[in-house]
Amino acid sequence: MYSPDTAQRSLAHWSEAGRTGMQAFYALATEDYRRLALARDWTADLRDHAVDRRVRLLDVACGSGRFPAALLAKGLPVEPAVHVDLIDPSAFSLAEARGVLAAPFVAADEHQVVIQDFDRPGAYDVAWATHALYAVPPDDLATGIGRMAAALRPGGFGAVAHASARSHYLRFYEAYRPAFAPHVAPYNDAEGVAAALRAAGAEIGVQVLRYRTRSADRAVVEGFLQRCAFDDTVSLDEMEVREPLAAYLAGCRGADGSYEFRHEVHLMTWEQADPA
Question: 190: which of 120, 134, 197, 202 lies 20 to 30 Å off by Cα?
Fold first, then answer.
């Protein structure tokens, strides 16, 4: 048993008290959503799965709405209208995500609940989870993925974007845990998410996105890494000397003191099959 749990640590940081840390994280992590928005023709995905010129969308673990914001920045047509149901255990996140929605996105229902407790089979044309499932308790991941897939109507479109075990987020957390929090649960990786999707009957396609983020600003790096760990009590100075995290960070550091983080994200997509 893991205690304190990673899911609880995550939820505590998705709050007004955690806003400063969230903003520090997105100084670099906004790139995750920009790359994702460019990765495929999301306009076609929405248009092709509309029913009566409307899309019913489930945004799983919506966070602060960075993915819809990235799509809006890229540019989306005003039709079809996309009626968005937001789901997240954090009331703060629901309010933040709702605040970024603009045409064609239309705020619909909100569900303050974890995905593994959500039960609306066949209710949606599209469902996505973008960098959203890391902190789901590992024992609950299969249930959560199953509930997300089941929420799609037959022929509906699903998408999950998640970092692989080779990506910074997973490698960092696996080095952080033994250094500072050995009893917390690990993050879920894309490989585990893919296995859960296949077990749920989803015939997924996988697109691999590789890119890097970089900063020479130690305050930016510290804030980013603290949010990666959901731990703002550990300074960058401490991270750089406590093993095994110190060795991982040394491999990310350039001769000029700047940091570069390597990302590998698996974008998993599928169309929901008819129930057997």
Answer: 120
